[in-house]
């Protein structure tokens, strides 16, 4: 199967640059994965589309304000650092710009010296290992000095960093938001619960690899990035109860889907677990955990379009995306949503 099989034509003006004022006012396309039938709703209608006994699975990972703007010492040359992975003892794996001027030994300064750093190693990938020097708690320093690491297709600055967080975000660790969850408000979640729908939380820390294009011509030659995910005992019990009672497991976003499909047992049950996952879901994959999916509209030829196509069928998905273009839906992180059932 070719990467180009998952291409669709998207006018650039349909890429949402800013979030809507009201989270749940975004449009919602419904797609029946059996028939391919399409409907047009708003996200606040989710309460009508879910059934008592369903279980909504939400990724509670929180985005780190992981983009640091500073300068090199003593040249005062500008530098941008993006934190990717905490390696322990104050050392992080990072992306740096300009990369060639941040070689091992380079000293960096951020926020008028409130945070300093030393580049300690250069990796084969081009990423750098950087040791940070600070007083107090690193996450608090980061909250003060860091910016949200918005996707490369978003060109506008975000006025309120919380709009790139879900209202239920809790555990710091992501380099990008699990964007399907951005549409939920606390009030909508309360209405959904009042209908008899259970809420279950998993954690998958989203890596920047989620934006990495598939460069291989054959999709099977693409290597997925590794992401850490975990499931609590309480969530495992909720999912097992839902299965036994005949309810649907509804994943909010591809990250929740990848977590469940990575951690599900061979017999379709769940237990408390954590793991690094490199799961790559594309057409032909047999889903063991998920019954329905809430998701945004994804980039052409991306692994996320491939995952959605594995669930709903490539022809159904590409047709739905073409309809979304015709109907002027908003695309990508701050865009509209789909409910596939």
Q: Can you describe this structure?
A:
The protein is of the alpha/beta class and 341 residues long. It has two domains: 242 residues, QueA-like; 79 residues, Thrombin, subunit H (Beta Barrel), CATH 2.40.10.240. 20% of the residues lie in helices and 28% in strands. The protein has seven helices and 17 strands. The strands form three sheets. Strands 2-1-17-16-14-3-12-13-15 form a nine-stranded mixed beta sheet. A hairpin with a 4-residue loop joins strand 8 and strand 9. Helix 6 crosses helix 7. The longest helix has 13 residues. The radius of gyration is 21 Å and the shape is globular. The protein starts with 26 loop residues before the first strand and ends with a strand.
Please give a handful of descriptors for the protein shown.
alpha/beta, 341 residues, 2 domains, Thrombin, subunit H, six-stranded antiparallel beta barrel, globular, 17 strands, 20% helix, QueA-like
Short summary of the structure?
This protein is of the alpha/beta class. It has helices spanning 46-49, 138-145, 186-194, 233-245, 254-263, 303-312, 314-326, and strands spanning 27-31, 38-42, 55-59, 61-63, 67-73, 78-88, 91-97, 107-110, 115-122, 128-133, 171-174, 198-204, 227-231, 249-252, 273-277, 292-296, 337-340.
Unreliable residue runs: none
| Head-to-tail CA distance between termini | 25 Å
For the secondary structure, the number of strands is 17
Give the tally of structural domains. 2
CATH topology title of the largest domain: QueA-like
Q: Helical percent range?
A: 10-25%
Would you identify the CATH H-level superfamily of the largest domain?
A: QueA-like
Radius of gyration, taken over Cα atoms and rounded to an integer in Å: 21 Å
CATH architectural arrangement of the largest domain = 3-Layer(aba) Sandwich
Strand % is 25-35%
Question: Which sequence of SSEs, written as H and E, runs from N to C?
Answer: EEHEEEEEEEEHEHEEHEHEEHHE
Bulk shape: globular
CATH structural class of the largest domain: Alpha Beta
Structural class: alpha/beta
Q: How do the strands of the widest beta sheet line up side by side? A: 2-1-17-16-14-3-12-13-15
């Amino acid at each position: 199967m070719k990467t180009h099989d998952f291409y669709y034509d998207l006018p650039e003006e349909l890429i949402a640059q800013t979030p809507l004022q009201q989270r749940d006012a975004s449009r919602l396309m419904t797609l029946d994965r059996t028939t391919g039938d399409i409907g047009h709703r708003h996200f606040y209608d989710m309460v009508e589309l879910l059934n008592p006994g369903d279980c909504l699975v939400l990724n509670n990972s929180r985005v780190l304000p992981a983009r640091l703007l500073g300068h090199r010492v003593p040249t005062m040359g500008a530098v941008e650092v993006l934190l990717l992975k905490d390696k322990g003892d104050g050392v992080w794996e990072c992306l740096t710009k300009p990369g060639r001027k941040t070689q091992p030994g380079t000293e960096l300064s951020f926020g008028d010296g409130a945070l300093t750093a030393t580049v300690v190693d250069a990796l084969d990938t081009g990423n750098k290992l950087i040791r940070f020097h600070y007083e107090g708690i690193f996450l608090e320093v980061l909250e003060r000095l860091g910016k949200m690491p918005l996707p490369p297709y978003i060109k506008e600055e975000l006025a309120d960093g919380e709009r790139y967080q879900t209202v239920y975000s809790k555990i710091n660790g992501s380099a990008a938001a699990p964007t399907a969850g951005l549409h939920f408000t606390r009030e909508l979640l309360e209405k959904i619960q009042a209908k008899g729908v259970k809420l279950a939380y998993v954690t998958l820390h989203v890596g920047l690899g989620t934006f990495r294009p598939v460069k291989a011509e054959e999709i099977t030659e693409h290597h997925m990035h590794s992401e850490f995910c975990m499931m609590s005992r309480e969530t495992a019990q909720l999912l097992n109860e839902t299965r036994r009672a005949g309810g649907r497991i509804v994943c909010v976003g591809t990250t929740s889907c990848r977590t469940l499909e990575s951690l599900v047992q061979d017999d379709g049950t769940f237990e408390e677990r954590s793991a690094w996952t490199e799961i790559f879901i594309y057409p032909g994959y047999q889903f063991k955990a998920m019954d329905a999916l809430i998701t945004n509209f994804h980039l052409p030829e991306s692994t996320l379009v491939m995952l959605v196509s594995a669930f709903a069928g490539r022809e159904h998905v590409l047709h739905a995306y073409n309809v979304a273009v015709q109907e002027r839906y908003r695309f990508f992180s701050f865009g509209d949503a789909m409910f596939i059932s």
